[in-house]
Amino acid sequence: MTTLTADDTRVPVHPADPAAGLQPRLALRTTLSHTCTMAWRALKKMRRNPEQFMDVTLQPLLFTAMFAYVFGGAISGDVSDYLPALIPGMLAMGSLTACMATGVQLREDMDKGVFDRFRSLPIARIAPLAGPMVADLVRYALAGSLTFIMGAIMGYRPAGGFGGSIAAIGLVMVCGWSMAWIFTWIGTWARSASSVQGVSMMFLFPLTFLSNAFVPADTLPDWLHAFANVNPVSHVVTATRSLANQGAVTAEVGWSLLACAVVVAIFAPLSVRSYKRSM
Amino acid sequence: MNQTPIPTNAPHHTGDDRPDEVAVAATGLVKVFGDNRAVDNIDLDVRRGEIYGVLGPNGAGKTTTLKMLATLLHLDGGEASIFGVDVRRDPHMIRQLIGVTGQYASVDENLTARENLWLFGRLMDLSSQESKRRAMELLEQFGLQEAANRPISAFSGGMRRRLDLAASLITRPPLIFLDEPTTGLDPRTRGQMWRTIRDLVTDGCTVLLTTQYLDEADQLADRIAVIDRGRMVAEGTPDQLKNSVGQSSLHLQVSERDRIGRAATLIEQVLGSVPVLDPEAGSITAPLDNTVRTADVLIALRDADICVASVAMHKPTLDEVFLALTGHATDEGSPKADETDYEELEVAR
User: Fold this and answer.
1) Which of A44, A113, A121 is facing B124, going by the closest CB pair?
2) Which of A42, A143, B187, B194 has the fewest Cβ atoms within 10 angstroms?
3) How far is A19 from chain B (nearest CA, A)?
4) Interhelix angle for A127-153 vs A79-110, to 10°?
5) pLDDT per residue as tens digits for the range B18-66
């Protein structure tokens, strides 16, 4: 078959061998660019569906006020004395709820036709998952700032100052983003968006309430105290408190960040694998 | 044989199997869902520059076959390559060679038409500027300029399909997969879609499409594979396929039953083939290889003073093609299809 002749040129638009010059692998730079494009898509989507912001706007405002006025007197004797303990706790709870929505929305999105096209394109497999997560940083930032603003309105003056508050918000953003990989992973294998919600709630409630987020852990019965002490949420809350209330970067901050790294290292590859297999 | 000419815009293939002429080569494709063999040992060989039609009823395995070739489903068995690239081993390279337009519009509902095309351009590694330019070009080519900034939710079915196809063409892939490109479209939009698909081939693309409509396959495809219950039951040009099924037929009923014999003789003289009689109903059925001859038959009958009560022409339908090829009707709407078969087909969808 070496006698190929001039009639190979009769297809003008496509070269004689369309398979020549194909990229066998994706470069890291391309992966990042695909992720950014996907993040752009997610941001557009957020802007056109503002009701998606309910959980990161109304919830921090309402829950912060509710918890402060309902539990403040009982736990700390006074609402304003409770705020330094409560606000970091609310911060953690806010970012956890926000990252649960990541999984629910991914599941909804994956059921749509456009995901079929994403799968058929030569793009990084992680981009359709990571893109929305990058965009979700906006949501965590919003939830965190609103919690602080609500606290400030009620009289919270963080001793860590502005820098400490920003660092506290930054920390819960990182934690929320890392935890979101767990919910993204659930999103890739769950049957429907509502089942993602159900499964996620099962994790979320025990994790936030069986911790030191809203009450001093030493008031809990021994067995629960033990659980609250190992609960990662407690560590994040303690780290956030030290940043906001003392402006101090404690070992808890380091442990929290390490835990985040571990979560991402486990669940990001799991998610991509499960997403690939769902085809 | 005096065949009705069918329009094809196909370049004629000489049938040589030089490797560089092959766009899709698949052997023994198998896909199993549970106990159901949705695709059961299908071979395909699509040549460069042709439109290849995969014809079959709902649940026959058309979409599954296409999805396997497009790397959207794993191959449970068999081998497939596209322009010599192995589907199983190099899915990432395959994705650079194909454009896929699904049965349901696979564009983003939250974005406008222009934003959709820009998004897919960026994902195909065009620069932002290039993506913008290409989006404008495609919107113009597909007559969607005026709708460019409207959200997709305001689009009609036909506009969505066109946008969907446009999105598959951003990087001008050499092979396009079209899954039921006109299902659910009105006749006018359908005709537009057909023209667009023909233009693709003029530009040098190869097209692999699935359809449930015989006339669509007939109009567009250079070669057709008929698929039923996951198996290929026939393959050939539209002409070959129709010949295997039989041609159009003429049904008529004479008013005076006792003159049916005379009428049959006249029809035989005009058409040159022996009609089938049903003296009880006074009806005559005759194979018709050229529909224009119907008028000749009617004139001959009038000249002989035979009154005709009703006349009808029948083209072979997909049901008849299936009946002829498989010995059973398409499962859809067939009262004889037993329940277990039907359930299996449901699973395949």
Assistant:
1) A121
2) B187
3) 6
4) 160
5) 556 899 999 999 999 988 899 999 999 999 999 999 998 888 899 999 9
CATH code of residue B280: 3.30.70.920
A203-215 pLDDT, tens digit each: 888 888 888 888 8
Strand partners, A13: none
The residue among A208, A156, A181 whose CA lies nearest residue A268 is A181
Asked if B144 contacts B113 with a C-beta cutoff of 8 angstroms, the reply is yes
Count the residues in chain A. Answer: 279
Q: Say if CB B122 and CB B114 are below 8 A apart.
A: no
pLDDT of residue B6 exceeding 50, the answer is no
Q: Which residue has the tokens 């990662």?
A: A232
Report the amino acid identity of residue A141: A
What backbone torsions phi and psi does residue B24 show, to the nearest 5 degrees?
A: -125, 130
Q: Do B212 and B92 share a structural domain?
A: yes
Overall domain count for chain A? 1
What three-state secondary structure class fits B22?
Answer: strand
Q: Is the dihedral of CA B33, B34, B37, B41 positive or negative?
A: positive
Give the end-to-end CA distance of chain B in Å, rounded to a whole number. 40
Task: Look at the pTM and tell me if it is higher than 0.90.
Answer: no
| A contacts of B48 (beta carbons < 8 Å) | 11
Domain assignment of residue A13, yes or no: no
> What is the least distance, in Å, from the CA of A62 to any CA of chain B?
29
Rounded CA-CA distance B97/B86 in Å is: 12
Q: How is residue B156 written in tokens?
A: 């009609």
Q: Do A25 and B92 touch (CB under 8 A)?
A: yes
Segment A42-101, tens digit of pLDDT = 999 999 888 888 888 888 899 999 999 998 888 888 888 899 989 999 998 888 888 888
Boundary-marking domain end, from B215, B244, B273: B244
pLDDT, residue B136, reads 94
User: Within an 8 Å CB–CB cutoff, is residue A18 touching chain B?
Assistant: yes
Is the domain of B33 the same as that of B101?
yes
B65's enclosing H/E stretch is: helix B62-69
Q: What is the pLDDT of residue B343?
A: 33
Q: Round to whole Å and give the CA distance between B301 and A9.
A: 57
Whether ipTM tops 0.85, in short, is: no
Do residues B238 and B261 share a domain? Answer: no
Report yes or no: B112 and B119 within 8 Å, Cβ to Cβ: no
Nearest-5° Cα angle at A78, A75 to A84: 75
Interface contact flag, B110 A16, Cβ < 8 Å: no
- Confirm if B223 and B52 have CB atoms less than 8 A apart: yes
In a domain, B335, yes or no: no
Walk across the sheet containing B175-179 and list its strands: B98-101, B175-179, B206-211, B51-55, B223-228, B231-236
Q: What is the mean pLDDT of chain B?
A: 82
Block residue for tokens 């009620």: A154
Q: Which domain holds residue A273?
A: 28-277
Count CB atoms within 10 A of the CB of residue A29: 8
**Full domain range(s) for residue B214:** 19-244
DSSP B86: E
Rounded CA gap, A59 and A90, in Å?
10
Given an 8 Å threshold on Cβ–Cβ distance, is B174 in contact with A44?
no
Pair B332, B60: CB distance under 8 Å: no
Interface test with A, best of B46, B97, B122, B123 (most A CBs within 10 A): B123
Nearest to A269 by CA among A187, A189, A181, A175: A181
CATH code of the domain covering residue B145: 3.40.50.300
